Amino acid sequence: MKLKRQLLGLFYASALGAVLIGTVAVYQILTPAVSDFEDDAARRELARVESAFLQTFTTLYARTRDWAEMHRVDALVTGESDVVPMVPGEAPDNLRLDRVVIFSPAGEPTMLRGDAGPQDPTLVDLYATYAERGCYPLWGVVSLNQKNYIFAMHPVADCGAALFAIALDGQMAMELSGVTGLDVSLQSAQADAPRKSHIVAIDDVTLSASFPVLDYQQRSVMRGQVTLEREIYQRGAPLIWSVVLAVIVVAFLTSTLVYWFVQRQVFGRLTILHQAVRRIAQGGDLKQRIRVRGSDELAELAADFNAMVDHINDAQQSLAQASERAEAANRAKSLFLANMSHEIRTPMTAILGYTELMENPSLSAEERQRYLSIIQQNGDALMALISDVLDLSRIEAGQVRVDRQPCELPALMKDVLNSHLLRAKQKDIRLSLQYMTAVPAEVLTDAFRLRQILSNLIGNAIKFTENGGVDVRVQWEDGLQSVLHVEIADTGIGIPEAALPNVFEPFSQVDESHTRRFGGSGLGLAIARQLSRSLGGNISVSSKVGEGSAFQLHIQTLAADNSKRVQPEQALAAEMKSQRLPAIRATGRVLVVDDNQVNRLLVMRVLSQSGFVVAEADNGVKALERFTEEDDFDLIVLDMQMPIMDGFDAAAELRTRGFTGPILALTANVMAEDRRRCLEAGCDEFLGKPIRARHLLDACVRMMNRSPISTRRA
Ligand code: ADP
User: Fold this and answer.
1) Which of 388, 463, 495 to mutate to test the pocket of ligand 1 (most atoms within 8 A of CB)?
2) Which residue owns the Cα nearest ligand 1 atom 2?
3) Comparing C-alpha atoms, which of 668, 645, 669 is closest to residue 657?
4) Among 186, 409, 581, 585, fewest CB within 10 Å belongs to which?
5) Which of 283-297, 424-438, 535-549, 646-660 has the lowest mean pLDDT?
6) How far apart are the C-alpha atoms of 305 and 311, rounded to whole Å?
7) Ligand 1 within 6 A of 522 CB?
8) Could you tell me the distance, in angstroms and rounded to a whole number, from the CA of residue 489 to the centre of ligand 1?
9) What is the mean pLDDT of residues 463-486?
10) Which domain range does residue 147 map to?
């Protein structure tokens, strides 16, 4: 059963209960009250009748006394001769007397009116009572010849008495009715009849009230009865029913009102909520909202519902955005793979093609040199691409660590610009460096990363500019945390506004045709921004299609201790001190250990060409054998990934066997973890593959030049 119907049933059931209880209560309270009123009223009326009845005694006695005191009555009782005695039967006429009796002082009754003989025992008993009470006046009710009378006795002469009696008959009842205005009747009663007033309802209209009439000996002889109209009851009963009816009506009206209120305030709103929830459950519109009225629980529910829909909506939107992003990322990755394939194949084609061409023995030395330089350039491009991909994966894995060292800022800037100067010249565009403020001679930052970021931004600017040029502006902002600002502004093709937010996303290129036209992997800006963030800064861009772009780089840094400020002109003249290469002391014996013959030969050739005496081994075990045979090596160049015994084990074993010279590790794994493992195994330096001749030589010479004691282990 629905909650609504249950509640409706409950309301009406409680209303019915309330009505029943109310009715019983009203009946229990009002009915006795009405009957009490009725009783009281009846008793009052009865009292009036009783008092009228007693009044007849008073009147009768007064008459009796008046008459008894008449001289002639006295004579009649005493038999005085000088007074004309009253003739028997002569009695007051102005009274409706049924009996008139005189008693002689000896108690002899003489009946002046009425038919009872002198021997009537009742009269004898009556006189006896009179005499017992000292011949004092006596009145009351008496039965004479089975007929009841009211009587009054008054003393006459010496214990004689005059007695008047009036029958308690219909006449008397009529007189009482006349006096009281009530319907009075007198009825004979048994001697043992109750001696109390008695009120009883005969029907809904009439009520009978009666009082006992006792004779002079206190015996119940009659009952005076009054028939009364039940006015109070007749007026009270409809009142009771009206109250009951009012209770019923009020109860049902209240129930209906409460139900209507609940229906409107609860079910109406619940229905709206339910419909909204159902619409959503059926996949309906998530934009719908429920109007929140008031501040009750249902209003709170509606507000929560709205919040929930907002939440679902947001979640759906984020999901849609996430899936859109995932799709975009997927598209970008597919595009990236396609680009990569292009980017890798292009230099590889050149490398392989020119390598093949170089096999021709008839090539002139000039041609050979040209081919070599082409092969090298393409190899460099390939290497740069691989570095980018690796850089990004390292950044995404959170493995980029910045190494803040004092760095000559003006020299670094000049160096970066110089490295792009050739390309700008080739494109016949301007590449300028301007200092907007004085800058510190040395700043604390990771020079390698800063160079990488600047190179990327300047490289892009040159790449996408055909006319005009590229201006690099440097500005230093002193403060608690100083900031280095570098703006790279070009007059190139610009970036459409819609593409601006995405240019820093990995694998993103504004236009796929860029790849074909300008080359690139879409990774440069993503890497640059991430790196700038790891240096405590960021990169932003503003651009206008056709007019050019401006990339603003800022990084938080500090001037190195005691670093003086360099004015713009001085800064432009700066040279990179660190550029000066150490003098090469290419002497000494080197053991080259690598399983890959091509790499081994390359390393050996580079070293021997520079004056080193070189020996070789193609795995760790062989290297140990050679070290045992001839232990005069000054340096060991050790590949880390080798079969039989790898470089890590070999380095550790060499150290155990007492080799104290420097060991240079070569590895294709360039992550920080690999570097740590190499050093832990006993190596002194680390060089990532592919090996560049210049870097290899630099490292070897540097290691040989170090104090042998300080680097070698005992
Ligand atoms: P890419 O290797 O393709 O240059 P980047 O991440 O460096 O990758 O750049 C992403 C894209 O941003 C570029 O393909 C190009 O569309 C756009 N872009 C970057 N720099 C510039 C610039 N200076 N002028 C115009 N477009 C640029």
Assistant:
1) 495
2) 520
3) 645
4) 581
5) 283-297
6) 10
7) yes
8) 13
9) 92
10) 69-167
Interval 230-246 mean pLDDT:
81
Let me know if residue 60 belongs to a domain: no
At residue 584, the pLDDT reads 52
If asked whether residues 440 and 562 sit together in one domain, one would say yes
Are residue 284 and residue 417 in the same domain, yes or no?
Answer: no
Statement to judge: residues 513 and 365 lie in one domain:
yes
594 plus 568 within the same structural domain: no
Judge whether 671 lies within some domain: yes
Mean pLDDT of the 149-177 span:
90
Cβ of 523 less than 6 Å from ligand 1 = yes
Is 697's pLDDT higher than 60? Answer: yes
Q: Is 503 in the pocket of ligand 1 (CB under 6 A)?
A: yes
Q: Is 464 touching ligand 1 by the criterion CB < 6 Å? A: yes
Distance of alpha carbon 290 from alpha carbon 295, whole angstroms: 14
> Cβ neighbours of residue 178 under 8 Å, at least 6 residues apart?
none
Is residue 99 within 8 Å of 168, Cβ to Cβ? Answer: no
Give domain status of residue 203, yes or no: no
pTM comes to 0.46
Question: Quick one: pLDDT band at residue 583, thresholds 50, 70, 90?
Answer: very low
Same domain, 345 and 310: no
Q: Judge contact between 224 and 53, C-beta under 8 A.
A: yes
Cα 391 to ligand 1 centre (Å):
17
Band the pLDDT of 679: cuts 50, 70, 90: confident
* Overall domain count for the chain: 4
If you measure from the C-alpha of residue 395 to the centroid of ligand 1, how many angstroms do you get, rounded to a whole number?
A: 19
Q: Is 521 in the pocket of ligand 1 (CB under 6 A)?
A: yes
Confirm or reject: Cβ of 550 under 6 Å from ligand 1.
no
**Whose alpha carbon is nearest atom 11 of ligand 1?**
509
> Is the predicted pLDDT of residue 543 greater than 90, yes or no?
yes
Tell me: do 558 and 593 sit in the same domain. Answer: no
CA of 541 from ligand 1 middle (Å) equals 11
Q: Nearest CA to 576 among 447, 423, 694?
A: 447
pLDDT tens-digit profile of 3-58? 777 877 887 888 888 888 888 887 788 788 888 888 898 899 999 998 999 999 99
Instruction: Round the average pLDDT of the chain to a whole number and report it.
Output: 83
- Assess whether the C-beta atom of 509 lies below 6 angstroms from ligand 1: yes
**In a 3-state reduction of DSSP, which class is residue 201?**
strand
376, pLDDT greater than 60: yes
In-domain check, residue 199: no
- Write down which residue in 114, 141, 167 finishes a domain: 167
Residues 554 and 606 in one domain: no
The alpha carbon of 478 and the centre of ligand 1 are apart by a number of angstroms equal to 31
Averaged pLDDT, 147-163: 90
Residue 186 and residue 222 in contact, taking contact as beta carbons nearer than 8 Å: yes
Contact predicate 434/375, CB 8 Å? no
C-beta 492 within 6 A of ligand 1 = yes
CA 490 – CA 482 distance, rounded (Å): 26
Residue 329 pLDDT = 80
Q: Is any atom of ligand 1 closer than 6 Å to the C-beta of 470?
A: no
Decide if pLDDT at 91 tops 80. Answer: no
603 and 549 inside one domain: no
Angle at 585 between CA 579 and CA 586, to 5 degrees: 115
The three-state DSSP-derived secondary structure of 649-672 is HHHHHHHHCCCCCCEEEEECCCCH
Distance 509 CA to ligand 1 centre (A): 6
Q: How many A from CA of 360 to the centre of ligand 1?
A: 40
Structure tokens at 395: 């950044």
Q: Is 236 in the pocket of ligand 1 (CB under 6 A)?
A: no
Give the CATH number of the domain where residue 649 resides: 3.40.50.2300
Atom of ligand 1 nearest to the CA of 510: 16
For 441, list phi and psi in degrees, rounded to 5: -65, -35
* Among candidate residues 271, 293, 321, the one where a domain is terminated: 321
